[in-house]
């Protein structure tokens, strides 16, 4: 009865890790999320491009914590936190805490552009990925019976905005879905009508990667017939016409927006000090200066290393979860807390079959080697033996037979 109650908001990379780290400790854990599963977001684009099905990259939280004692999961939306009264307000009632870890992650950022918010497709959740898959396949179905050349070309033009890892991976995967798979399903379509266009506002793809890898990614995409356009800033999109800042435009029925994220909506309503992209400023020990029993980790937290904000990436969230848990336990015992030091494991992005770029420590690879590293890292990152096996089988099948198993339009 006298166990301290640790409440964790969010069961993504940070929250999940924190809850797992607290196993066997003398505390009562309550994990709250609006979804009943943990999602492996780095493979969402493969669901969108018909390579994997959603259940292969998501895992039910109750199954993960089946054996963990002093653990409770609450499926609910968190609406507010009363830091003075130490209570979390959810759609299912109030939850008191002795220590709180906020790991609410990020949401898509349209930078206030209403036309994009209304008409662009996004890739942040399972629903988005399935919607995008349905949309791409439906565009091919419509184009197969479209007599008007201009409309057919708009249906078969796929615009990806944002040259970060998600944009690069999605553009490469679209190109392969089309050239390796759909061309066989739609023999009547003229492939010259099909275009994948990757728009990036900066002068290079994959910001933060070494220049050699950035160039390689652009070259490989071009070799896959992706039209890579740098210094191309999107101004507006009405569902039919993409308007660019230089006055040009592209007729397209598909615009995937992967050009930005900002903190999840909850973080804007907590009355905390926010920095770039709404991230909440934390101490080097990862808690709030005003409320030392509250920790913020992952995408939601703002902390700098050598003058730059830590990236919004899974390894940051996972490493911060470890330190937050250590510090909560140290705090309870009146011991000194640890300062968070990020150990950068490197960066990876795949561009398709046999092609990826990788920076691991001082090593940089491209091509097949990098692709194998990417495959292994992502397989290990998935939760559950069944999911790893299913993904491995799917990847092997697709590799050998140039196939994508999940070419289903599952909604009207
Ligand atoms: C398409 C895509 C590809 C990516 N690829 C990579 C990659 O290759 N490598 C990499 O390192 N990173 C990648 N990232 C980034 C990585 O996923 C994030 O940095 C990481 O998930 C952050 O972890 P987190 O715990 O802070 O938040 P998340 O993992 O996003 O978890 C947040 C959780 O909080 C829950 N939540 C939010 N608000 C509420 C609320 N109000 N009430 C209840 N629950 C709430 C959400 O449902 C979610 O489960 C990718 C992201 C995306 C979207």
Write up this protein.
With about 400 residues, this protein is of the alpha/beta class. Helix 1 runs parallel beside helix 10 (about 315-330) and helix 5 packs antiparallel against helix 6 (about 150-155). The chain is built from twelve helices and 26 strands. The model has no long low-confidence stretch (mean pLDDT about 95). Helices cover about 35% and strands about 25% of the residues. It has helices spanning about 15-20, 45-50, 60-65, 115-120, 125-145, 150-155, 165-185, 210-225, 265-270, 315-330, 365-380, 385-400; strands spanning about 5-10, 25-35, 35-40, 60, 70-75, 80, 85-90, 95, 100, 105-110, 155-160, 195-200, 225-230, 235, 240-245, 250, 255, 260-265, 280, 295, 300, 305, 310, 345-350, 355-360, 365. Bound molecules: flavin-adenine dinucleotide (FAD). Flavin-adenine dinucleotide binds near residues 33, 77, 124, 264 and 315.
